Amino acid sequence: MRPDGPSARPHSPAGHPGITERTVDVLVVGGGPAGLTAARRLAAAGAGRVEVLDREREPGGIPRHCFHGGFGARDPRHLVPGPLHGPEYARRLAADALSAGAALRTSVTATGWAGPRTLEITGPGGIERVTARAVVLATGARERPRAARLIPGTRPAGVLTTGELQQAVHLHGRRIGSRAVVVGADAIAHNAVLTLRAAGVETVALVSSRPPLPVPLSLSLPRPRRPVTVLHRTTVTELVGHGRLTGVRLRHEDGRTAVVACDTVVFTGDWIPDHELARRGGIPLDPGTRGPAVDTAYRTAEPGVFAVGNLLHGVERAGIAAEEGRVAAGQVLRHLAGEPWPGPGLPVRVGAPLLWAAPNRVHPGGPPPLYGRFILRTARPLALPRLTVSQDGRILYRRRPPLPALPGRPVHLGSGWTSAADPAGGALLITV
């Protein structure tokens, strides 16, 4: 999966023995739905040598180990005919990128920057420095592990994130345990329960610090058929066990505590952008999303560097990430054709209980965001929120979304107000 052309012939630069230097036209870092779809369009459009880097042995990103169906089912442009299971969807994306002429390099990691658009890469062949006319960061998002959630206890076996669970079951066929507690009560927790079921593990409880949603999550398991207990307004305060997990200590909102016996706990959700490479390059991060700050054309503050997909917002479904990759590729093509790189633009900020907005920079008169809307997140349920956009105290937009705003689910805000923003004014503020 590493087709090399004449422009890829390496040489060792003077003063850097053992380091190979190459040039490409577009370097895409991350072989998930966003990166592969961007590479497909760029290669098909004749952007030159388009190279995708992925640290895994197989490209495809998170869908590789998501064995539930539905991938591509709501793809508005039929980039990949669906619905498909995750691994099939991942293979199709990779095959389409290759067919379009992109080069896919796996088991390689971009470790840092040696210049504005020069990346240092480590792989089986050694250390390389690759310089590109444009760089597309598509490194995705990851779940916050137990250690980062500051939950005390020892480090027993049986503590997993959703991704680790899915890889263990679907990619490696590992035995998991017999009784599990899933931390979370949203769609990702639902997928974790399905994966546990496939591994023959009973889910004894779903634990969520949030109140019940208006539409409760309802899950049933096969024999014995009984609903999965959902414990709302409850947190995990300790992992119990030495060597192997034996239980989790829970604290309810009213102060009651209890220990639930289990040999497996799965932490779901709580996604954070995998922004380490962007941070090492000095690319400004948005304080809300914690991903690179980008405008509606997916441009970062660094000329020639774009960012796309769940690196910008953890986490949207694969079809959204893929469509963002397709749209971003169009902006990359404009950059390669000589379109000037704009200034920093106007930052987009949010007020509590909103957590963040994406995209998070605006150039008045610039292209609209994907589907003509911004994505927001809220920290708590809002039955009928009224979203207001203002700049320096001047109201630009005010409207109620048609649906309630729920934690962990996207809230959409139309973008028609961007043209009314003052390019010389202050930050744009979204409040409820």
UniProtKB/TrEMBL annotation:
Organism lineage: Bacteria, Bacillati, Actinomycetota, Actinomycetes, Kitasatosporales
Name the record gives this protein: Oxidoreductase
Coiled-coil residues: none
Gene Ontology MF annotations: oxidoreductase activity
Superkingdom classification of source: Bacteria
SUPFAM superfamilies: FAD/NAD(P)-binding domain
Organism in which the protein naturally occurs: Streptomyces inusitatus
Classification via InterPro entries: FAD/NAD-bd_sf, FAD/NAD-binding_dom, Metab_Enz_Cyan_OpOx_G3PDH
Region annotation (Disordered) ranges: 1-21
Residue ranges of domain FAD/NAD(P)-binding in the record: 25-325
Keywords: Oxidoreductase
Stored Pfam families: Pyr_redox_2
Signal peptide: none
Record has Nucleus as a keyword: no
